[in-house]
Amino acid sequence: MKGFDFQDAAARISHAMRALAEHNAFSDAEVAALTCELLVADLRFMADTGVLTEDGTPGDSFYDDDDAFEALCEALIGSRPGLSDEEEMRIAHFVDDYMDQVQLYFEESGLLFWE
Predict the structure, then answer these.
(1) At 58, is the secondary structure helix, strand, or coil?
(2) Listed residue (111, 113, 100, 115) closest to 1, CA to CA
(3) Which residues pair with 58 in a beta bridge?
(4) Whole-angstrom distance between the N-terminal and C-terminal Cα of the chain?
């Protein structure tokens, strides 16, 4: 994505996530780590589904929020075997809020295109 700065995105989204009271069970370091992990998984999802091409330009596909949510939850929960149902639910809520914050970041940065 032309103009995308991973470090800036991670910092701004992490900051926004820390401000949400429902995620106070996570430490600041955990919020930052989860946010980075989600950004990597999200970019991989976009490449795998054709939303972005190999060089980061927009592809021919549209971003499907439902499919993305499932893929991102699977990425985080799948990399953490043995989580309780409550911990999985907490991560799913985190993913949901991350998706809102990353969309806001992309919109504010001029990286999101609506058709």
Answers:
(1) strand
(2) 111
(3) 52
(4) 17
Q: Is 36 helix (H, G, I), strand (E, B) or coil?
A: helix
28 class by beta-carbon count within 10 Å (0-12 exposed, 13-18 middle, 19+ buried): exposed
Listed in sequence order, the residues at least 6 apart from 33 whose beta carbon sits closer than 8 Å to its beta carbon are: none
CB 1 within 8 A of CB 52: yes
Per-residue pLDDT tens digits for 24-53: 889 999 999 999 999 999 999 999 999 988
Residue 9 tokens, joined: 């995105």
Q: For residues 26 and 34, is the Cβ–Cβ distance under 8 A?
A: yes
Its pTM stands at: 0.89
Q: What SS3 state is found at 52?
A: strand
Six-digit token string for 109: 């940065």
Name the residue among 2, 11, 13, 71 with its Cα closest to residue 42. 71
Residue 53: what are its φ and ψ, rounded to 5°?
Answer: -90, 175
On the CB side of 88, CA atoms within 13 Å amount to 13
